[in-house]
Design a protein that fits this description.
By secondary structure, this protein is α+β, with helices and mostly antiparallel strands. It has helices at residues 26-29, 33-45, 73-94, 98-106, 110-114, 134-145, 148-154, and strands spanning 13-19, 48-55, 59-66, 127-131. Strands 2-3-1-4 form a four-stranded antiparallel beta sheet, with helices on both faces. A hairpin with a 3-residue loop joins strand 2 (48-55) and strand 3 (59-66).
């Protein structure tokens, strides 16, 4: 089941996917993989643990284990998306990638422009699926570590920006 609400089930593991706007290769274009790692470190402060991940050029998969009821999963992920979006936009500006920034600007809804939003970096929602047992957690880790989409890209059966260790 996909969750898009303020889930408040601490002690459960979630397989989450965050996708860049229009599937653009924003992590790669902005060279902002470090932004994801900073978000992971921030999650520790909120007692939310990263059990596995892979960062692709245009999306990321992560297994999250939130342990506090005070901050729902949607807030944890929303804060991360906001933090990473600012970093991606700043990197693109420094690199002079004005065409790409223009695409991101065109993706902002008129009502969001009125609120001061300038760029649509990620898809509006994220996907989160509760892992109900250990078998599903292992299945999701296998998917993360042996994702067919990047096996073709890398050709070695693992992606370099993940928790997979050979």
């Amino acid at each position: 089941m996909s969750l898009h609400d303020g889930n408040r089930d601490p002690g459960e593991v979630y397989f989450c996917t965050i996708t860049c706007f229009k599937w653009l290769n924003l992590f790669q274009e902005a060279d902002c993989y470090a932004s994801v790692y900073r978000w992971f470190n921030h999650l520790k402060n909120d007692a939310c643990y990263v059990l596995g991940y892979v960062i692709m050029p245009n999306h990321l998969h992560v297994l999250l284990y939130p342990t506090k009821v005070e901050k729902p999963l949607s807030n944890l992920v929303g804060e991360g998306k906001r933090f990473m979006a600012y970093d991606i936009v700043n990197h693109l500006k420094r690199q002079g990638k004005d065409d790409l920034l223009g695409v991101l600007h065109e993706g902002v809804a008129p009502e969001e422009i009125k609120k001061g939003k300038r760029h649509q970096v990620f898809r509006l929602s994220f996907d989160a699926r509760k892992c109900y047992n250990e078998k599903i957690i292992e299945q999701k880790l296998t998917y993360i570590h042996h994702n067919p989409a990047w096996e073709v890209d890398v050709g070695r059966g693992f992606y370099e920006i993940s928790t997979f260790k050979r």
